[in-house]
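Researcher: Here's a chain I'd like modeled. Treat it as a single chain, no partners, no ligands.
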Amino acid sequence: MDITRRRREAFYGYLFILIWIIGFTIFTLYPMFYSLYLSFTEAYYSLESGVETTFIGFTNYLNVFRSQTLLPLFATYIGKMLISVPLIIVFSILIAVLINNPIKLKGFWRTIFFLPVVISTGPVIAELNNQDATSIPSLEDSSLIVFISENLGPWIASPVEAILTSMLLILWYAGIPILIFLAGLQKIDGSIYEAAAIDGASPWDRFWKITLPSISPLISVSVIYIVVSMSLFVESGGILDLARSHMLVGAPDSTFWFGYGYAATIAWIYFLLMVIIMGIFVLILSARRKEKN
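Model: Modeled as a single isolated chain. Structure tokens:
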């Protein structure tokens, strides 16, 4: 009788998510596997027959790794992520701790820091980026940029310059992490801080011994959000913009734009890099938590 009831509950549960499963299969899972197939083909769109494919194995992947245009972009992306993500995490934690204090207009400041997230989800951010409104002019024109570009190699200088010239845009991604950390801070029992203060712990000690360990599980969630959000932003002349151009402009007689297969290859390499970067951060954070435990 109990088994029958469990099966009935499981049936109703799957029935409720059936529409989502169908939508995920049609609009996400199938396009992913189809793009993976296209990455092993030479594929172009034809008005008469649609997408025409010719299997070529790993040729697209070899061509991407030989490209003098894409390799610097991939290197800049990796360097930018490795520097930007810790920067945003530290900034988000600091702002969340400040907002969590008993200050006036707490809701107003929470809205101010979340507002860029709303703006960045639409076409507004693209227009602001085109008008250079996401950079700091004084920093962009400073001698620091000149020093970096002249004294460091391009593989190191490019991501550092990209971060410094788009500092405001990077910090805009801190809205969601701030709310995540703020929610975690509000779950900490205030009596723990009172007991620590009575024992003579300074605010600095309370932060490192109570606050940071309490919100450390939320750092992994924030890291995944930041990496995915920054990776999905289409910059002019960036990796995703080039992949789109290869897909839309590519033709069999073109010497520069190589069609759907090449675009799918770029997208999959980009996706794998994104997963690797997330994995590195999560493994480091997990190892740190195990050491403390």
